[in-house]
Design a protein that fits this description.
The protein is of the alpha/beta class and about 600 residues long. Helix content is about 50%, strand content about 10%. The strands form 2 sheets. It has a 6-stranded parallel sheet with strand order 7-6-5-8-9-10, with helices on both faces. Helix 27 links the parallel strand 8 and strand 9. Helix 7 packs parallel to helix 9 and helix 13 runs parallel beside helix 15. The chain is globular. It comes from Azospirillum formosense.
Amino acid sequence: MATIAEALAIAFDHHEAGRLAEAEILYGRILDADPNQATALHLLGVLYGQTDRPKLAAALFVGAIGLVPDNPGLRYDLARVRLILEDGEGAVARLTRPVAEAVGVPLLSAHAAALYHDDRAGESARLFRGLLAARPAEALALWNLSLCRLDGRDTAAAERLARRACALAPQEAEAHAKLGLALTAQGRRAEAMTAVRAALACDPAHAPSLSNLGALAIQTGEDARALRLADRALRLAPDLGEAQVVRGDALVHLDRPREAEEAFRGALRVAPQLTVAHWNLAHLLLRLGDYAAGWAEYEWRWRSEALSGQRRPFRQPLWDGTDLVGRTILIHAEQGLGDTIQFIRFLDHVLQAAPARVYLEVHGPLLPLLERSTDPARVTVIPRAPDFPGVSGLPDTDVQIPLMSLAGLFCPSLEAIPARVPYLGTPEERRGRWAHRLRDAVPDAQRRVGLRVGLVWAGNPSFHGDAQRSPRLAGLRPVLEVPGVRFFGLQKGPGRDDLEGVDMPPSFIDLGPDIADFADTAAIMSNLDLVISSCTGPAHLAGALGVPVWVVLPHSPDWRWLMGREDSPWYPTARLFRQTRSGDWSGPAAAVARALRRLVDGSEG
């Protein structure tokens, strides 16, 4: 019969090998034989912590501490699980102080940092809070907690913590670097640059700060400089995944996509859980038309900072594309209005799986349009949950799926894109009403003269990158000088500010104030000859309606417009006009004006 020591050794082997069920049974048998076996209590507590049973783990650690009160490892483990259980700060301080004194602040901080990098930012933050409750002036914990707060998008708290760390340890590059990250997240680029330079003044070889400086350089269009900074950071720290991401971003902007892909993949080799690398790789692969790989990477979007505000606590499992006979499904729109318009085309694929009922949750402005464009006998269109990103009031379906995830199930290649247009329609009464409105807006003598062209010049300014994708009214001003055209302004939202105090030509009629929703916009478009738009929702709407649409694009456009093409496999009636230099809209505007003149004089079909 094995001794307790031998049984412990066997149990520990199981534990280390990941055979947790076998280890748990053996630990239990040891404790049946000797309830005061401190090592078994400790190890079984660790196992309970690994299997999401922190209350049981804490009870075992307390029992073990009663037998060996001077064991710092036990006190450390107890502190960690109580932090997970979110005990009061006073209890945390009492526990953390002796652990910090016994094992050292750097070791405790290292473990908390490891939790953060293991995508367990909540546990990491609780451990750092506990450490600060015991040691309020610990700069190391302050700047790391700042990073946790940044991960939770509490940028103001991240800034306060980083500034405290800088005040306590002005000679530490890490403190200034974390302040730079917090300021960057708030869009305060100049201040962020100052903080990063302060970090490099403390340590000129501080690789993360070189990488951060490269990221800031990309924001100001200094892509070649950003590439040099990222390369320098990687020479100092070859395993710095964030620097590989900066390198990849710079290469994307420098039109070197295959090298950019290798940079993103290099980041993932050293940091497989680095969300920004997955996110950027997804966009690049989709731009390259590699949809099979791109959609798989795109599922990482829910961990990204860009979409952290859209993560939702659905109870239902994610639909995997299998048969839906007798079952109900919730399809929920995500991201922007244009995304919903583009991807609603995949609804037909869902219906082919024969669901008992489809519930389609969409943004409010799209409700009338999509109610008109779907079969009410099979599809119920519903507004977004009032507590979005919560799920209150939504139907209790069998399965659910985000709208854009349908592409991963049904669109493995460019050739598989469902591109039949129109796939959206407008109510007849609205189309007729707007036909009269457009006719009455034009003087009698001019009603039979010229093309009718809709114009949109700006997107949602809260969208990351809107400043790069939106030419604004000034950027498209040369288009308004083309004779023989009646322009109708379809612009909604903050972009309308561009009209304030500006003398518009007589050929321009502003319809924006009278547009209630996207059904109105669709009805107007159905009465136009052409729509000219920036990369925003109305461009997708025109394409979905089968209306000719010319889209002006930035030098590094969104993934859906692919690379180097003047057409779009998503929208057969679209024509693309791309910047040749970043930030310079004169080229696309001149090209659109030339094409429009040819359309007016009949030399272009």
